[in-house]
Amino acid sequence: MSGEKRLIGIRAKIERAEKHILDLNLAIESFLKSDPYRAVGYDDLESGERVVKFRIVDQPPPPLLAILGDAIHCLRSSLDHLACQLVDAVGGKITNETAFPIAHSVEEFESARNLGKIKGADPCTIDLIKKIEPYKGGKGDIFWRLHMLDITDKHRLLITTAAQMSKMVITGVVSLQSIASNRLFARGEPARGPLKDGQTLISVSRADRTPQYEDPQFSFYIVFGERFFEGQPLVPQLLQLVDLVKRTVEAFLPFL
């Protein structure tokens, strides 16, 4: 069997992940149209500031999170399919333990048990995997993070949260002097994500706004809440993972 034929099933897994990501993006757009994250302004009588806070009205629905988990699983699974093909290509025996080795540390990665997951593969294949360093803290640390997301999703729905986009529109009139002197933001720069319910987005003193002042308009997007990718926007990060897995799979074509 040619290497190209061996890649057919693996590429199908990756393409399925891409389809899930497309569906996820549509689900996110639909969810955000329901206005689940809002910027609520009020006058602080004690400080005299106009304060705008972040409020969470609703959380991403379970079906959206399930799609996210499916995309993650397809990407992680494609690497295990690759491992099986690498073993089979040289006449090795595929077992229930055969998998793409990813570990929590360099010590665990180099252990006989972990590298045994690719037992039977060409030694050059194993050397290439070692160069990738798919373990926590290694050059391929992102593989470990993908692996951990997949494990997490097997036990519960993945956690997401909201982050503020860099876009902020002030539709009213604000003192140009206050902007130049950085006095517009009473607590420094505008808040960045990930945001928590009740977090202050911006506060403007009475002296720095005119009667025509209107609260800024904010746009929000969904990011990972899991510590492995915390604060990373869902779709762009998933697309980066797709690109990574694709490049990794193609790198092993000569050994198939």
Tally of DSSP helical segments? 8
Residue share in helix = 40-55%
Main β sheet profile? 3 strands, antiparallel
Instruction: Please mark out the parts with pLDDT under 50 across 5 or more consecutive residues, or reply none.
Output: 173-188
By oligomeric state, this entry counts as single chain
- Backbone shape: elongated
Category by helix and strand content: alpha+beta
What structural keywords apply?
single chain, 256 residues, alpha+beta, three-stranded antiparallel β-sheet, two-stranded antiparallel ribbon, 8 helices, 5 strands
Fold blueprint:
Blueprint: H1 3-33, E1 37-43, E2 49-56, H2 62-89, H3 106-110, H4 112-115, H5 123-132, H6 141-155, E3 160-169, H7 176-180, E4 200-205, E5 217-224, H8 234-251
Antiparallel strand pairs: 1-2, 2-4, 3-5
Care to describe what's here?
- This protein is of the alpha+beta class and 256 residues long.
- The protein has one domain.
- Helix content is 45%, strand content 15%.
- It contains eight helices and five strands; from the N terminus they run αββαααααβαββα.
- The strands form two sheets. It has a three-stranded antiparallel beta sheet with strand order 1-2-4, with no helix packed on it.
- Strand 1 and strand 2 form a beta hairpin.
- The longest helix has 31 residues, at 3-33.
- It is elongated, with a radius of gyration of 24 Å.
- Mean pLDDT is 88; it is low at 173-188.
Write a concise synopsis of the structure shown.
It contains eight helices and five strands; from the N terminus they run H-E-E-H-H-H-H-H-E-H-E-E-H. The protein is α+β, with helices and mostly antiparallel strands and 256 residues long.
